[in-house]
Write a structure and sequence with these properties.
The chain has 9 helices and 6 strands, in the order βαβααβαβααββααα. It is globular and about 50 Å long. With 202 residues, it is of the alpha/beta class. Strand 3, helix 4 and strand 4 form a beta-alpha-beta unit. Strands 1, 2, 3, 4, 5 and 6 form a 6-stranded parallel β-sheet that branches. The longest helix is centred in the last third of the chain and has 16 residues.
């Protein structure tokens, strides 16, 4: 089994439909570590030693969050600034995360066709994730294809919340059980609930 660490970051949880459904679904899965960053750190007071210890104890680190102004919610940036220290995550002797995997599960308010050079967001979604991908690279980590739901604000009305949350549960379980094919996923720009490369149990 892979040791999976799930970080959840949503500053407005009571207004969330999709992310809350995803987080609720994740509670049904044994054998993974779940951390609600805003609940644990209401004053943004990140415990660096605790977080670094968590990272050392896990193989796959997955951040779940809604895309905020083309980036992460503020607490994830604060977490990065404090936890990914020189000498720990990068730089001289900073190889503690080498060989681990970083993955994202994100929701985007805009529809899929908005995230293109022709769409109103002007760039593919992966372009906005470049800083996180490069962070993983600098730390010697594999950056896995993200799990994405576009048009998340319309999701409650178009029936996509439940299949996306169920797909998320399948994704987490497959990662935990070493049945998720990261190499096959790498051929896709994003993953959705119906494009998950999960190996069957033998």
């Amino acid at each position: 089994m892979a040791r999976l660490l799930l970080y959840y970051a949503h500053p407005g949880q009571k207004f969330s439909h999709v992310n809350q459904a995803m987080w609720t679904a994740a509670q049904d899965l044994d054998g993974i570590t779940r951390v609600d960053l805003y609940a644990e750190n209401p004053r943004m007071d990140i415990d660096v030693d605790r977080e670094q210890a968590r990272l050392l104890e896990h193989d796959v680190i997955l951040f779940q969050f809604p895309l905020f102004w083309y980036s992460t919610p503020a607490i994830i940036k604060e977490w990065q600034d404090l936890v990914l220290e020189h000498g720990f995550a990068y730089g001289s002797d900073g190889d503690k995360l080498a060989g681990k995997t970083l993955m994202l599960a994100i929701t985007a308010a805009g529809p899929a066709d908005a995230y293109s050079h022709e769409g109103y967001q002007r760039f593919p979604l992966r372009t906005f994730l470049t800083p996180l991908e490069q962070t993983a690279h600098l730390c010697g980590m594999r950056f896995a294809t993200p799990y994405v739901l576009h048009a998340s604000l319309r999701a409650p009305g178009d029936g996509t919340v439940e299949p996306h949350a169920l797909g998320y549960l399948k994704l987490l379980g497959a990662i935990r059980d070493n049945r998720f094919d990261f190499d096959k996923a790498a051929s896709q720009d994003i993953l959705t609930h119906d494009t998950l490369p999960i190996r069957e149990l033998i």
